[in-house]
Design goal:
By secondary structure, this protein is α+β, with helices and mostly antiparallel strands. The protein is built from five helices and 18 strands.
């Protein structure tokens, strides 16, 4: 059970990975000259570099999600009971195992349009990675600065959907989620208007009542609606660090708290990690369930022409930052705080400087990097070194 979100303004991608156990995941950078092997195709000896979360087996990164150096994002999410793979190759041009899809797409395609063109001539074969590895039932979220699509392997082959809300969860198929979203068209961040009895005085008694009815459980359908609502209403400021933190707030709103979801086997589903990827800087930000703070890994700071993988073990221990008191000048000093100095000051944001991830017609999809942004790492995040 997972949730993936993509934005076009600002351009950010990421997901929660919800699972009852760790699968040995690491942040992995695959440089351009690390070979990828395929069952039915020649190896990719040279390809686009990529970064994402993966488990590494036999020197092969099995990516859960990744972005390549050109800014194309792809994430695989659990799709049990619906995913259908072909037992034998047919007349399609490309025959790929499910675990080969992300390396092939991100290794050879620079844009969402190129990825879709390749996928339209692709079929997925029922081939696990190797003995002892399950055949993962998946569907995929693909995105770049221009938009997003959902790709689902069904009995009739790969089915493609435009994804205007930039959200993907799990079962049922994507067409159901978009149909179900119509039930929530009246949700709004604004206070509701009394249409029940206009002649009766029924003022709202609290903030947030315009979203009454927003589902709060952790089922895939409810997470889809909640993520879509928040994605389309969240405001993003002009500063990159603020945008990264805001994206993590979106993911936290659909994350699983340990103890809230129990599996049939008696285990607890929880959000193993959340990630946010900035394709402009090539920075992969993540936080694990037990650590909480944000860690960053920079794609472009590594040697992308080498052959060996870069592997970064996850930070899983919490880190607390002690605070020092503010200095208090002596009375008579012109900088001495006044009687209201202990009261927090929260300046109101300028609405003209806030952006919405659901842009109005004509809004450019790909904002330019902010001038003066010399480091890809947002302040307050922890850069990570490879092992």
């Amino acid at each position: 059970m997972c949730t993936s979100i993509s934005l076009t303004n600002p351009v950010l991608f990421g997901r929660n990975l919800d699972l009852e156990y760790s699968f040995g995941q690491q942040v992995v950078i695959t440089p351009r000259n690390h070979p990828f092997s395929f069952h039915h195709h020649p190896p990719l000896a040279s390809h686009l570099a990529m970064i994402g979360m993966a488990t590494v087996a036999q020197d092969t990164p099995l990516y859960a999600e990744a972005v390549n150096e050109k800014g194309l994002y792809m994430a695989g999410l659990n799709f049990p009971g619906n995913a259908c793979y072909t037992p034998q190759p047919s007349a399609k041009t490309w025959h790929l195992a499910p675990y080969e899809l992300i390396p092939m797409i991100l290794g050879t395609c620079e844009t969402l349009a190129q990825a879709r063109a390749l996928l339209e001539n692709t079929e997925l074969s029922a081939i696990p990675f190797g003995p002892g590895y399950p055949l993962a039932p998946l569907h995929w979220h693909l995105a770049d600065a221009t938009g997003a699509i959902t790709v689902e392997p069904m009995e009739q082959g790969l089915v493609f959907y435009e994804n205007p809300v930039g959200v993907l969860t799990n079962n049922p198929p994507f067409s159901y989620h978009m149909l179900n979203l119509r039930n929530y068209q009246a949700l709004s961040p604004a206070q509701p208007e009394n249409r029940l009895a206009p002649n009766v005085d029924l003022p709202p008694y609290g903030q947030g009542m315009g979203a009454l009815g927003l589902p709060g459980d952790w089922s895939p359908a409810s997470r889809f609606v909640r993520a879509a609502f928040l994605r389309c209403t969240a405001r993003f400021g002009p500063d990159k660090p603020e945008q990264i933190v805001q994206f993590f707030h979106l993911l936290q709103a659909v994350s699983m708290v340990r103890g809230s979801v129990r599996t049939p086997e008696g285990n607890w589903d929880e959000t193993q990690y959340s990630c946010c990827i900035d394709p402009q800087t090539g920075t992969y930000y993540y936080q694990t369930y037990d650590a909480g703070h944000i860690v960053s890994v920079d794609l472009f700071s590594q040697d992308l022409d080498r052959a060996d993988l870069y592997r970064f073990s996850l930070v899983t221990a919490p880190r607390f930052f002690p605070a020092d008191p503010d200095p208090r000048p002596e009375p008579g000093n012109p900088h001495h705080p006044g009687p209201d100095s202990d009261k927090p000051h929260h300046p109101k944001p300028d609405p003209d400087k806030l952006t919405r991830p659901c842009p109005e017609p004509g809004t450019p999809h790909h904002p330019k990097p902010e001038p003066g942004l010399s480091s890809p790492h947002a302040p307050g995040t922890v850069p990570h070194s490879p092992i």
